[in-house]
C-alpha cells in the first residue's frame, strides 16, 4: 500500500513509523518490544532460552548468558528495523535492500545458532523440539523463517519488475518452488511442531500444578499462535501449488517447442549456465538452505508433461486457494487470493485456447504474468 504514495510521503512515513528513540509511532511501544512480539507470535513464546527465570545458574553465569542474549536481541532489532524501513522505498529499491538484508539475516542465523548451541552445551539452557533430545533452537528457527520469506520475496519482486527475460522465467519459478517447499517444511516440522510440544508439556504439567489458571492462559495463547501459524502455512501451501503448476506449464510449453528454457540464442556471448549463476548470485553466500545448482536445473525438465497434467495441477491449486479464501476475513487479503484464483483460470483458458504466438504479458496478479500458449509447431 505504501507504494501508492509520493516519495516524500513515504519518507515521512519512515520517520514517523520509528522515531529516533526507536519508539513505534511515538508510543511507549519500542522496537525492542516489537522484535520480541514478532518472535513470540511465531515460536519463541514460553521458551526456556528466552526466559532467565527458568535458568538454574549462579549470578556470574546468569550475567554472562544475559549479556550474550541481550547482544543477540539488539542485533535482531537492527534486522527487524531494516526490514520495516524497506517498504518506504519504491519496488526496485526494495529489492536492492532485501538483497542486502539477506546477508544480515544469514549472519543473524549463524550468530543465533552459535549462541543457542553454546548455552545448551555449557549450561543446559534450551528447549527440546519433542520428546527426543533434539534442540529446538527457537530463536534461530524464527530467524531462518524470516530469511526464507525474504529470499522468496526477492525473486517474486524480480518477476513483478519484469527483470527476467522470457527464457529465464522457468528457472525463477523453479527456484521459488524449491524455497516455498523448504519454508512450508520448516514451518510445519520446526515452528508448528515445537509449539504443539510446548502445549502438550503445559497440559501434562497442569494436571499436577496448583497454578492451573496461569498454565491455562499460556496454553490458550500458544493455541492461538499455532492457529495463526497454521493459517499462514495453508496460504503458502496454496501458493506453492500454483508455483508448481506454473513450472509444469512452462515445462509443457518447452516440450511443445514454444520456447527454450535451457539454452540461449547465438546473439548471446555467454552461456545459459553463466546467466543462471548470475541470477542466483545473491544466494551464493547464504549457508542454508542449500543452493540449487545448474545441473539440478538442467535435470528438472520432464519430457512427458501433458496438457491434462498441467490443467489438473492448476485446478488443484485453484481449489486449494478457494478453500483457503473461505477462512480469510481481511478484504485486501481476499482480493489478493482472488487474483491468484483468476490466474489459475487464465492459465487453463490459455492452454485450451491454442494461440499461435508465445507472449508474456501482465496478468491478474503481479507475480504471475500471462503466458500466451500456442499450438505445437509441426516440423
From TrEMBL:
Q: Does the keyword Coiled coil apply?
A: yes
Please indicate which superkingdom the organism of origin belongs to.
Eukaryota
The NAA35-like TPR repeats domain covers 12-334
User: What GO CC annotations are associated with the protein?
Assistant: NatC complex
Q: Which UniProt keywords apply?
A: Coiled coil
Q: Which Pfam families match?
A: TPR_NAA35 (PF25789)
Coiled-coil spans are 205-232
Q: Is Coiled coil there in the keyword field?
A: yes
Q: Per its UniProt record, what InterPro entries does this chain match?
A: Naa35_N, TPR_NAA35
- What's the name of the protein? NAA35-like TPR repeats domain-containing protein
Amino acid at each position: 500500500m505504501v507504494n501508492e504514495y509520493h516519495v516524500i510521503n513515504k519518507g515521512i512515513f519512515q520517520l514517523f513509523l520509528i522515531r529516533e528513540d526507536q519508539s513505534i509511532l511515538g508510543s511507549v511501544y519500542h522496537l525492542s518490544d516489537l522484535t520480541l512480539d514478532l518472535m513470540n507470535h511465531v515460536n519463541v513464546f514460553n521458551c526456556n532460552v528466552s526466559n532467565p527465570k527458568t535458568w538454574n545458574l549462579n549470578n556470574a553465569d546468569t550475567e554472562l548468558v544475559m549479556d550474550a542474549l541481550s547482544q543477540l536481541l539488539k542485533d535482531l532489532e537492527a534486522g527487524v528495523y531494516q526490514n520495516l524501513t524497506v517498504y518506504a522505498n519504491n519496488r526496485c529499491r526494495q529489492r536492492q535492500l532485501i538483497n542486502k538484508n539477506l546477508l544480515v539475516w544469514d549472519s543473524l542465523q549463524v550468530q543465533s545458532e552459535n549462541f543457542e548451541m553454546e548455552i545448551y552445551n555449557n549450561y543446559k539452557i534450551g528447549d527440546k523440539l519433542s520428546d527426543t533430545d533434539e534442540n529446538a533452537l527457537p530463536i534461530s528457527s524464527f530467524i531462518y523463517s524470516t530469511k526464507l520469506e525474504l529470499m522468496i520475496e526477492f525473486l517474486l519482486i524480480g518477476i513483478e519488475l519484469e527483470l527476467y527475460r522470457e527464457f529465464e522465467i522457468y528457472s525463477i519459478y523453479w527456484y521459488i518452488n524449491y524455497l516455498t517447499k523448504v519454508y512450508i517444511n520448516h514451518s510445519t516440522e520446526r515452528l508448528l511442531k515445537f509449539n504443539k510440544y510446548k502445549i502438550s508439556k503445559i497440559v501434562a504439567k497442569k494436571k499436577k500444578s496448583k497454578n492451573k489458571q496461569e498454565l491455562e492462559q499460556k496454553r490458550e495463547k500458544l493455541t492461538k499462535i499455532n492457529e495463526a501459524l497454521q493459517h499462514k502455512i495453508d496460504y503458502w501451501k496454496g501458493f506453492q501449488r500454483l508455483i508448481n503448476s506454473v513450472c509444469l506449464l512452462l515445462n509443457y510449453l518447452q516440450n511443445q517447442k514454444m520456447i527454450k528454457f535451457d539454452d540461449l540464442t547465438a546473439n548471446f556471448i555467454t552461456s545459459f549456465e553463466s546467466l543462471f549463476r548470475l541470477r542466483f548470485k545473491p544466494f551464493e553466500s547464504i549457508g542454508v538452505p542449500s543452493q540449487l545448482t545448474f545441473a539440478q536445473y538442467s535435470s528438472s525438465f520432464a519430457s512427458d508433461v501433458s496438457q491434462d497434467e498441467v490443467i489438473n495441477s492448476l485446478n488443484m491449486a485453484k481449489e486449494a486457494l478457494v478453500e483457503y479464501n473461505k477462512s480469510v476475513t481481511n478484504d485486501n487479503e481476499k482480493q489478493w487470493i482472488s487474483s491468484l484464483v483468476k490466474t489459475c483460470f487464465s492459465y487453463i483458458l490459455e492452454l485450451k485456447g491454442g494461440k499461435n504466438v508465445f507472449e508474456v504479458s501482465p496478468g491478474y496478479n503481479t507475480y504471475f504474468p500471462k503466458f500466451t500458449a500456442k499450438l505445437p509447431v509441426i516440423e
